[in-house]
């Protein structure tokens, strides 16, 4: 069972996307948003390190991407919407990102959410 967090909007519990983070994460967000195009996704999946280097990411950013460290990516300036493009490219989703932030598995996070809402016919949530 996931423990309730203390009521605090301070870091590390809440990652605030500040102007400084936006500036620090420019290359990272540009890279992640480039994955909106199918050809770019294919190129990334074919040569992940080469694509990341060509995008101008630092060694630390490349390491975060390779480890799928969603929390770390947001801490260094990745915007959630951009990070989700990367997550989708590697077969993950918002539940994976949220679970990483909380420190549990995707299934544990799903089980902790008492209500499921879906607009997709035939979807189980």
Structure description:
This protein has nine helices and no strands. The chain has 125 residues and is mostly helical. α2 crosses α7, α3 (38-46) packs across α4 and α8 (94-102) packs across α9 (106-112). 21% of the residues are buried.
Task: Report a brief summary of the structure.
57% of the residues lie in helices and 0% in strands. Helix 2 packs across helix 7, helix 3 packs across helix 4 and helix 8 crosses helix 9.
Q: Can you summarize the main beta sheet?
A: none
Q: What best-fitting shape do the alpha-carbon axes yield?
A: globular
Class derived from helix and strand content: mainly alpha
The total of helices stands at: 9
* Cα gyration radius (Å): 16 Å
The total strand number stands at 0
| Overall pLDDT confidence | 86
- Poorly predicted parts: none
* Helix-strand sequence: HHHHHHHHH
Q: Which strand-content bin applies to the residues?
A: under 5%
First and last CA, distance: 20 Å
Portion of residues within helices:
55-70%
């Amino acid at each position: 069972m996931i423990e309730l967090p203390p009521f605090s909007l301070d870091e590390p519990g809440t990652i605030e996307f500040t102007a400084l983070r936006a500036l620090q994460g420019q290359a990272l967000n540009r890279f992640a948003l480039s994955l909106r195009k199918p050809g770019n996704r294919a190129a990334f999946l074919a040569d992940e390190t080469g694509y990341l280097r060509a995008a101008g990411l630092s060694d630390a950013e490349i390491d975060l991407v390779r480890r799928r460290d969603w929390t770390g990516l947001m801490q260094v300036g990745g915007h959630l919407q951009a990070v989700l493009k990367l997550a989708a490219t590697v077969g993950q989703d918002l539940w994976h990102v949220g679970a990483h932030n909380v420190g549990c598995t995707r299934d544990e996070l799903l089980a902790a959410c008492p209500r499921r809402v879906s607009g997709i016919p035939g979807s189980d949530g």
